[in-house]
Write a structure and sequence with these properties.
10 strands, Rossmann fold, Arc Repressor Mutant, subunit A, binds magnesium ion, Helicase, Ruva Protein, domain 3, 17 helices, three-stranded antiparallel beta sheet, 380 residues, binds adenosine-5'-triphosphate, 3 domains, alpha/beta
Length: 380
């Protein structure tokens, strides 16, 4: 009897096998054991949409909980994150001390509601700092700690991010309380840290790229869940399926899911034929949910660059792309970089680039040309 479809092609859902991220998770584990001096005690995951950042935050929290740590999990795309983190910290304090033993100021302020007498209500960052200091002290006494994860940093309110950073800098770095941090962001957040946010906290977080899975990890991410559910996949089928994913985590789940679904209920072997028919649906979905929205946000010049690449059947030489576009190589290099950040291009060998998604080549070739994409002299 075959089990049910094990794949999880939904953003934020844990994959059946978390492939290729063991090293990063080991480092985080080591950091929690070592303490605040470990460079990865505070860390940020960078990656394009669907690369697997949210599931990495969840996995980092699992690592923390397995150590007996508490966690606070926050999504910064909704405003009010400072207040929410504070409330979560206070809930943890209550759980640790019991409501009778409320000895900490921030807890009293919270439980008394808005009654601050004539005094102005405490500043949100100030009360977060108090709550985290109190919680951190309690946990330090018990030789354990707290991990805070913050997803979607790029969409956060900039003011809140700055406030959060300065609280963390104080409470965890300067005063060395056991409060670890893992954040997740789309690649442009790195530029934001470099150019706009000079605060020490984000700057000193270690950075991990949540990139494409290599071929071996991709094969494992596809084959292990199939085998665990009582089916097998033949070698040729596995090759075709893993090639089609380009190691992109979301696509691994899509290809796995629709390939599994394409094999008739009674069949215990997944073959090349099932992969071919599963791929059609996986390609449609990745096009609609990833390629099309990304393409819409690209400038006409970015699109011209991608069209020039899609003319090749495999990797492209940057110098050749520059020639096709009639621009110099350094100019082409700027667009290459932008497209890497957008998740459409990956660097391969020196001076070469490839499309990040296997499905993108055919999809781009089929895209009707927008007149704005024509070189300036031709569109006049
Ligand atoms: N290491 C992995 N191995 C296999 N599948 C993975 C892995 N990491 C993530 N996935 C799968 O990839 C998909 C996307 O993961 P996730 O939602 O974490 O991406 P994300 O980077 O947070 O995307 P977004 O930027 O849109 O929020 C999910 O279906 C998830 O199950
Ligand atoms: Mg996410």
């Amino acid at each position: 009897m075959n089990g049910s479809n094990p794949f999880a092609p939904t953003f934020g859902s844990a994959p059946p096998v978390m492939a290729g991220r063991g090293d990063i998770l080991d480092t985080i584990h080591e950091a929690l054991i070592t303490g605040t001096t470990h460079p990865d005690y505070t860390t940020i995951f960078f990656g394009v949409r669907g690369a697997g950042k949210t599931v990495m935050l969840n996995a980092a929290e699992d690592v923390a909980r397995e150590q007996g740590w508490l966690t606070i999990s926050e999504d910064a795309s909704r405003s009010g994150m400072i207040a929410r983190i504070e409330r979560a910290a206070i809930r943890h304090i209550h759980a640790l001390t019991g409501p009778q033993k409320r000895r900490v100021r921030s807890v009293q302020a919270f439980s008394l509601g808005a009654d601050f007498g004539d005094a102005p209500p405490p500043d949100a960052a100030e009360s977060l700092r108090e709550a985290l200091s109190d919680l951190g002290d309690l946990l330090a006494n018990e030789a354990t700690g707290l991990m805070i994860t913050v997803d979607e940093l790029l969409s956060a309110d900039r003011h809140e991010i700055r406030e959060f950073g300065s609280v963390m800098q104080h409470v965890c770095r300067r005063e060395q309380r056991p409060i670890a941090f893992a954040g997740a962001a789309l690649p442009p957040f790195e530029e934001y840290i470099e150019t706009e946010d000079r605060s020490a906290f984000l700057h000193r977080c270690s950075r991990h790229d949540i990139g494409q899975l290599n071929r071996a990890d991709t094969r494992l991410a596809l084959s292990a869940p199939i085998e665990e559910q009582g089916r097998a996949i033949d070698d040729q089928a596995l090759d075709a399926a893993s090639l089609a994913t380009s190691g992109y985590a979301f696509m691994v789940q899509l290809v796995g899911f629709y390939t599994w679904a394409a094999a008739p209920a009674g069949s215990s072997l997944i073959t090349r034929e099932h992969v071919e028919s599963g791929l059609a649906e996986a390609n449609r979905r990745v096009s609609r949910h990833v390629l099309a929205p990304t393409w819409r946000d690209l400038s006409p010049i970015d699109r011209r660059f991608l069209r020039a690449m899609a003319a090749d059947d495999g990797e492209s030489r940057l110098a050749e792309i520059a020639q096709r576009l009639d621009v110099d190589v350094s100019y082409a290099g700027v667009y290459r970089q932008r497209l890497i950040r957008a998740g459409m291009v990956v660097p391969t060998a020196r001076g070469r680039v490839d499309l990040a998604h296997h499905a993108a080549r055919a999809w781009i070739r089929d895209m009707p040309l927008d007149p704005r994409e024509l070189p300036p002299k031709m569109s006049d």
